[in-house]
Each structure stands twice: as structure tokens, then as C-alpha cells.
Design brief:
The complex is a heterodimer of chains A (about 290) and B (about 290). Chain A is mostly helical and about 290 residues long. Chain A has eleven helices and two strands. In chain B, helix 7 packs antiparallel against helix 10, helix 10 packs antiparallel against helix 13 and helix 12 packs antiparallel against helix 13. The chains are: A mainly alpha (about 290), B mainly alpha (about 290).
Chain lengths: ~290, ~290
């Protein structure tokens, strides 16, 4: 009787593990299945590299890929120095209690809903950008990247702090014994040792930036063409999905959002496996 | 000498970065509260209806956020109800049963699942709803049920990961004591390991709740609409706070509606804060309870 219960429980655990991992596969399979007609029609090459011109029957998602790339890389450019400074502050420069308080605060910041960043961005930052540069409506790559940068900074800071925390205690003790100041310890011991973990943090943050929908949707202007400067509007893959979803279900426009979905999914997969690979090589060398 | 300058610059740079981030976020939230605090009152939530009668569902609320708040709450509860059993069971399997190789493969799956953008999961939910609509019943479309299932996919990795990490973090001597006294593996898990790791598991659930309450991308694809009143069943469309905020930001007709948007943002922010602190409270109480059980 007892044996039987053990066995049933184990099977139930196994079953839920299989069910939840199959979700990962099911999502990709569903999207490939739905997007297949369009991909077959024009080939993958056409889909990825052709411009978006629905009236000429061309449903390429090239502009959206460029938009996503521009906005997320620019936001990373803003977020990286900020996160670096904040993690230095928490890790060693600020006095211990202040550092701990600051870390708590940053953890709280990760809980601020994205839609609120977008909402305040529209009414606070967009007019400022419009007045400052005197061009366009203020809904542009720069605005979206600025807000996105602020949004991913807390996450990136926490990734950096975690990689600082993983450094073996003996390294730090050795530096202390040699009389290093906190800043010296940070620059010459912690930073070189944490390089790999920090790279992981940057990659994961890039994943977050690419996957975010609301900020780009609300602030980037959503124009479907390749922008020539950061003051021009652009549309991201995620925003494209949100905007086209209302279209007719059988139309080719609608099918194109599954191509966006597949691209986003594959990008996620690449990020995940890159991070796994990096942490694996690190584990074997240390 | 040159190195000294570098060190000094590093300190300066760090404080500047910290201040910049703090002031940016303070500006963001300060702007929201200064512009919006006037609109936060009972009329914002209940409109012209009497609050008590509205809560008891005797009166419909037309001009308030009450339906959106109820929609968000029911969405969060439903998604968590789906995600907790499966997530915890998977976490237990990974930590206690899986072979090393099976574990590596499953780990990879959940890492990918954790990274999938929420809009892609929303797209999946939407096309799933359309699929059901076409092949099974005309009555099924984007609705509360579909949204909650899609959201539970989104938060599943959080629950799996924290359950697994909490169980794996338990020291060996605690792990072996009950087994040495003759407990079976299952008894050991449910009577010793889970109570011991409840704090960690709860923190995963807290994260999941926060994520469900704030996510907009999934629900805008799977059934959230701007105005429909209270959700009548799990098969109906519903209003939700984050979607309402998004909707107002692009479609507001007059300053009064915009003020409602500010009010909704403040309420969503407070709701997230309250959910977090309640969950933290529960977490403390639960571990206490688990430790001093008769």
C-alpha cells in the first residue's frame, strides 16, 4: 500500500515535469505550424530580409528586426554603465548598511510594472525629447531606449551583484591581507574574477530588452521602416505582434506575426544556450 | 599615481551612477504621484455607485476601476492556482527524483521557457483560443480562462526554479534524519523537506504573483478589453488594470479620462506593493508555523 503511494507520487511528479517541459516545445511547434504557409510561400529569406509592403504582397519583417536591434542595443548602452556603477556601489564602495539598503531598493524597482514605465514615459519624457531636438513627435528610438534602459538597469545590477557574490572568499581575504583598499579590491580582484558572470548578466539583460513589448509599443512610434537616426520612430518585433493581432485571421499580415514569434523564440533560445555554455565552461576551468 | 586617479574616478563614477538611477526612478514615480494623487479616491474606483453595494455585486460600476481591479485579482488567483501544483511538483521532481542527465535536459527546457518574451506566450494563448474556437466550440474565444493559462505558463519557471533551489539547499543531515528513522522518501519530502524550504518556495510564488499582476503583453492578446464590466465567468472577456493603463495612454478622450489613467497607475503600483508585502508576511508566518508544528 505504502509502496503504491510512493510510486503514484513519483509518477505524478514525473508527469508534471514532462507536462511543463512540453510547454516549451508546444509553443515553438504551434508558431512554426501557424507561420508555415507564409514561409513556404516566399521562403524564409524573403520573410526575413524583405521590407514590409502589404499592398505589394511583401510581408518581410526586416524593419522590425532592425527596430528591435536598435532599441535594445541602445538601451543596453544606457543601462550597462549605470548597472556597473550601481553594482560597484553595492558590492564594495558604499558602506555596508547603505549598500544593503540600496540593494533592497533595487530589488523593489524590478517589481515596478512595465506599463507604468511606458505610461510615465509618454507624458514625461516624450514632450522633453520633442522640445529638446525639435524633430518629429518625440516618439522615437531614443525615447524608448532611454526608458527601456532604466527598466533593465535594476535587473542587470542584480545579475552583476550575484556574480560578485560568487567570487571565492579566499580571493578577497588574500587581497585584504595585502592591504588593498575596497576600491583596489574591486578593480583588481573582483572585476577580473567576475568577468564571465557579468557577461552572462549582460546577455540575459539583452534578452529582457528584446522581449519587452510595452515600452517599445508605447514610446517608439511604431513606424514600419528602417530608421535612419535615433530620433526616428521604429517598430519592434514584439510591438508588431501586438499591433497586427487585430487583423483578419486568414490574412498574410496575420501570418507574419508568427514569423516574428519564431524569430523571438529562436533568439531566446540562442541567449539561453549561450549563457548555459558560458557558465559551463567557467565551471570546468575554475 | 595614475592608478590612484583611476581608483578615485571609479568611486566617483559609482556614486554618480547610483544617484542617477535613484533620481530617474524617483522622478518617474514622483511625477506619477504628484500628477495623479488628486484622482485617487473612492469615486475613482466605484464611480457613482455606492462602494458597499458595488462590492456585494448589487450595483454595477460604470465609471470606475472596480471591474478592472476585480479582473486583475481573479486573473492572478486563477493563474497562480494553475501554476502552483504543476510548478511545485516539477521542482520536487527536479530536486529529488531526476537523474543528472534528465535534469540537465529539463533544466535547459525551463531556462528557455523562462526567457520566452511574454508577447510570444500571449500569441500562443491567442492562437490556441482561435484553434479551440474553430475546432471545438464557438463559445470559446479569448477569455479569462485562456489568459490565466497563458499567464501560468509565464510564471511556471519562477515556481519551478525556486522550489528546486529551496529543496536542493537543504543540508545533508536534515535530509537524512527522517530517512534514518524509517520514513519513506515521500514522507521525507512532505513532512521534512517541504516545510523546511517553505520560505524559498513562497518567495517564488511572490515573484509569480507580482508578474501576473503587472503583465500586459499576455493579456492584451488573450482577452483583456477596455470596458465590459465584471467578468461573468471564466469564459468571458474581462477588464484588467495594466491593460486599462495602456489603453488610456493611447486612447484617452479628455483630461478626466487621463486622470483616471494616472489613478489606475497608482493603484496598480500600490496593488503590486501590497501583494508583495502580504506575501512577505505570509512567508514569515508560514515558516514560523512550519517550524513550531506540534
Amino acid at each position: 500500500m505504502k509502496k503504491c503511494r510512493e510510486l503514484v507520487a513519483e509518477r505524478a511528479f514525473l508527469l508534471s515535469a514532462l507536462a511543463s517541459s512540453s510547454i516549451t516545445v508546444a509553443i515553438l511547434a504551434f508558431m512554426v505550424f501557424m507561420g508555415l504557409p507564409l514561409m513556404r510561400q516566399g521562403g524564409l529569406y524573403q520573410l526575413l530580409l524583405k521590407p514590409w509592403a502589404p499592398y505589394q504582397g511583401s510581408f518581410g519583417i526586416y524593419p522590425m528586426i532592425m527596430g528591435t536591434g536598435a532599441i535594445s542595443l541602445l538601451s543596453l548602452l544606457f543601462a550597462f554603465p549605470l548597472s556597473l556603477g550601481c553594482s560597484f556601489l553595492i558590492g564594495s564602495i558604499a558602506p555596508k548598511p547603505a549598500g544593503r539598503g540600496f540593494r533592497r531598493l533595487i530589488e523593489l524597482m524590478t517589481g515596478i510594472p512595465t506599463v507604468i514605465y511606458g505610461f510615465v514615459g509618454i507624458f514625461l519624457l516624450v514632450p522633453i525629447v520633442r522640445e529638446l531636438f525639435q524633430r518629429g513627435s518625440g516618439l522615437c528610438i531614443l525615447t524608448a531606449a532611454l526608458v527601456l534602459g532604466i527598466m533593465i538597469t535594476p535587473t542587470m545590477t542584480l545579475f552583476f551583484c550575484d556574480s560578485f557574490d560568487r567570487i571565492p572568499r579566499t580571493y578577497l581575504d588574500a587581497a585584504d591581507a595585502l592591504g588593498a583598499s575596497p576600491v583596489q579590491k574591486l578593480l583588481y580582484v573582483i572585476l577580473p574574477a567576475a568577468k564571465n558572470g557579468m557577461l552572462n548578466g549582460v546577455i540575459l539583460s539583452l534578452g529582457r530588452a528584446v522581449g519587452d513589448t510595452l515600452i517599445a509599443l508605447m514610446l517608439a512610434g511604431n513606424a514600419v521602416r528602417v530608421a535612419e537616426s535615433v530620433l526616428e520612430p521604429a517598430r519592434t518585433l514584439t510591438a508588431h505582434i501586438a499591433l497586427v493581432i487585430a487583423a483578419d485571421y486568414e490574412s498574410p499580415e496575420f501570418r507574419s506575426i508568427f514569423a516574428c514569434g519564431v524569430v523571438l523564440y529562436l533568439f531566446t533560445m540562442a541567449v539561453t544556450f549561450l549563457v548555459r555554455y558560458l557558465s559551463f565552461t567557467k565551471d570546468t576551468t575554475v | 599615481m595614475k592608478l590612484r586617479t583611476l581608483e578615485r574616478l571609479t568611486v566617483l563614477f559609482s556614486w554618480a551612477a547610483g544617484l542617477l538611477l535613484l533620481s530617474a526612478v524617483t522622478l518617474l514615480l514622483g511625477y506619477l504621484f504628484v500628477k495623479g494623487y488628486e484622482s485617487v479616491n473612492l469615486a475613482l474606483i466605484f464611480g457613482e455607485a455606492a462602494p458597499l453595494r458595488a462590492i456585494l455585486l448589487q450595483e454595477r460600476v460604470f465609471n470606475g476601476l472596480f471591474p478592472a481591479i476585480v479582473g486583475t485579482l481573479s486573473l492572478v488567483i486563477l493563474s497562480i492556482v494553475w501554476a502552483i501544483p504543476i510548478g511545485m511538483a516539477t521542482g520536487i521532481y527536479l530536486a529529488e527524483y531526476a537523474e543528472p542527465r534528465a535534469k540537465r535536459v529539463l533544466d535547459a527546457f525551463f531556462d528557455v521557457l523562462a526567457g520566452i518574451p511574454s508577447i510570444v506566450i500571449g500569441l500562443f494563448g491567442f492562437s490556441f483560443a482561435v484553434f479551440l474556437h474553430k475546432h471545438y466550440s464557438d463559445r470559446i474565444g479569448p477569455c479569462l480562462l485562456i489568459s490565466s493559462i497563458a499567464l501560468s505558463f509565464l510564471v511556471l519557471p519562477y515556481i519551478i526554479r525556486t522550489t528546486q533551489a529551496a529543496l536542493e539547499g537543504i543540508p545533508r543531515d536534515i535530509r537524512l534524519t527522517a530517512l534514518a528513522l524509517g520514513a519513506t522518501k515521500l514522507q521525507n519530502i512532505f513532512l521534512v523537506l517541504i516545510p523546511k524550504s517553505l520560505a524559498g518556495i513562497m518567495s517564488g510564488i511572490i515573484l509569480a504573483i507580482g508578474r501576473c499582476a503587472e503583465d500586459t503583453a499576455v493579456i492584451m492578446l488573450t482577452g483583456a478589453v477596455a470596458s465590459t464590466g465584471l467578468p461573468r465567468s471564466v469564459f468571458s472577456q474581462y477588464e484588467a488594470l495594466p491593460f486599462y493603463i495602456y489603453y488610456i495612454s493611447s486612447q484617452y478622450a479628455d483630461p478626466a479620462e487621463l486622470m483616471q489613467g494616472y489613478g489606475a497607475s497608482i493603484i496598480l503600483l500600490l496593488l503590486c506593493a501590497i501583494l508583495f508585502s502580504v506575501a512577505y508576511g505570509i512567508r514569515k508566518g508560514l515558516t514560523h508555523f512550519a517550524f513550531y508544528r506540534p
